[in-house]
Design goal:
mainly alpha, Inositol phosphorylceramide synthase, two-stranded antiparallel sheet, 18 helices, about 0% strand
Length: about 475
């Protein structure tokens, strides 16, 4: 059995913290260059202003509270609600508007920061470290959301041309699934759209529910498990947007449709977004698949995010599915439902092409394999699995960029090859992780025999004469 290399966790946490802080500062400067608020500015502003997502801040508080006792949790939740009531009364008294934000959530952020102060001033040793980890976990969830929003703004400002024609052409190899599912979702009307919209929009909340189950023993054991869903979520959000810069794509709803105007009549929460219809190739989605022809980069507006390749919503939903496999039955069913509904929404809303989803699955399995291999000490099987996933992911992006026309002209060859490439990564991940778990499982010792020595058969008594 391969030995596990123990690493100094404290030093790794310190390095990770410095890298994360440097990354946030760099994003802050990049956003300011385009006249936009960066992630740090947005987070500081939400200490007083109406937060963009109050539910996310309370989800972050829930993650922080995994290190607390039940009594401390009730106190923290009560304090957060009390602070929110005070903020609401002050806004009402001065007639301040929430300007599109939520009227709650500030209290959760203040309580999280208050626990950071308590950790520094009132805790020592392992208890201080544990509480700071809980605070860091909650703040990282919020910072990840802010970082993602900033990334999306940067992609729209720095990538004036998009590669949708390349991806749409390659998608012919899969039979243009976004056009097919888009017609189905359109036929379901307001009910079908809004049900999927809730699932699609509350992906982070579903992840927090799964994470709370995985971290339910932290308060009693006084330590975090070596691997959990929040780690995977954060790494996906950190690495994924880098590929948006390399492969900018806006999605079929925008490149081949009328944009958000398509869903304005059925959506219950339709945002007021300027129309992008005049930037589209034509009004084709979801009725008519685009014709096959040589693709070219196309200019697009400076508002719509280039956030399609790979599909991070697919990656996050797949991560939830993976991490619910060992939970109770209701959690496994919920993970399966969230994955299927998210895939239907990403395609049916016109936000992604089919090839985006394949890239997203390969991406998340590679990230998950890398994190688990890191915990094991980079043994040979883990390195081979990560290398295989990274190679397949790179091959997918290169084929979408340089071979889309060939893929569209030979769909019966290219389509199965795409599916087989994804299936090879799935098979490798399942097979490798199953081997890891079988080696890590404690071996059952044979039960001792009640008689330490072999028992001989008794000699038969002599028959009477």
């Amino acid at each position: 059995m391969a030995s596990v290399v123990r690493r100094p966790r404290g030093a790794l946490w310190a390095v990770a913290g410095v890298v994360a802080l440097g990354f946030l500062v760099a994003l802050e400067f990049a956003a300011r260059r385009y006249g936009l608020p960066g992630p740090l500015t947005s987070q500081v502003r939400e200490m007083v202003a109406a937060p963009k997502s109050g539910g996310l801040l309370y989800a972050a508080l829930a993650l922080t509270m995994v290190v607390l006792t039940w009594r401390q949790r009730f106190i923290a939740a009560g304090a957060a609600i009390g602070v929110d009531i005070v903020f609401a009364l002050v806004r009402w008294a001065v007639d301040a508007e929430t300007t599109g934000g939520h009227p709650f959530g500030n209290g959760a952020l203040w309580v999280i920061l208050g626990h950071a102060v308590i950790a520094v001033t009132r805790r020592t040793g392992r208890e201080r470290v544990l509480l700071l980890k809980g605070v860091g976990l909650g703040l990282l969830l919020v910072a990840g959301r802010k970082t993602g929003d900033t990334w999306l703004l940067i992609t729209s400002k720095t990538r004036p041309e998009v590669l949708d024609q390349y991806v749409a052409t390659a998608d012919h190899a899969l039979g243009n699934p976004s056009w097919l599912v888009g017609r189905v979702v359109t036929a379901t009307g307001s009910i079908g759209f809004n049900v999927l919209d809730v699932v699609y929009g509350q992906l982070a909340v579903a992840a927090v529910v799964v994470a709370l189950y995985q971290l339910r023993g932290v308060a009693a054991e006084r330590r975090f498990p070596s691997h959990h869903l929040v780690r995977t979520f954060l790494v996906i959000g950190l690495l994924g947007p880098a590929f948006y810069m390399i492969f900018p794509v806006v999605g079929p709803l925008f490149a081949y449709g009328t944009g958000t105007a398509h869903w304005a009549t059925v959506s219950l929460w339709a945002p007021e977004i300027p129309s992008s219809e005049h930037w589209a190739v034509a009004d084709l989605w979801p009725r008519t698949p685009p014709p096959i022809g040589p693709p070219h980069p196309m200019p697009f507006d400076g508002i719509t995010p280039r956030n399609c390749m790979p599909s991070l919503h697919t990656a996050w939903a797949a991560a939830i599915f993976i991490h619910t496999r060992k939970g109770p039955r209701v959690l496994r069913y919920a993970g399966t439902f969230w994955l299927i509904a998210t895939l239907a929404a990403t395609l049916g809303f016109g936000y992604h092409y089919g090839v985006d989803l394949i890239a997203g699955v390969v991406f998340v399995l590679t990230v998950e394999a890398a994190l688990r291999t890191f915990d094991r000490g980079w043994d040979r099987s883990g390195i081979r699995l990560v290398a295989h996933g990274a190679t397949v992911f790179a091959a997918l992006l290169l084929s979408y960029r340089f071979l889309p026309l060939e893929m569209a002209e030979h769909p019966w060859v290219a389509g199965p090859l795409l599916v087989l490439a994804m299936a090879s990564v799935i098979h490798g991940y399942v097979r490798t992780t199953a081997a890891w778990e079988s080696k890590a499982a404690p071996t059952r010792q044979p039960r001792p025999h009640p008689h330490p020595h072999p028992q001989t058969e008794p000699e038969p008594e002599p028959e009477p004469i």
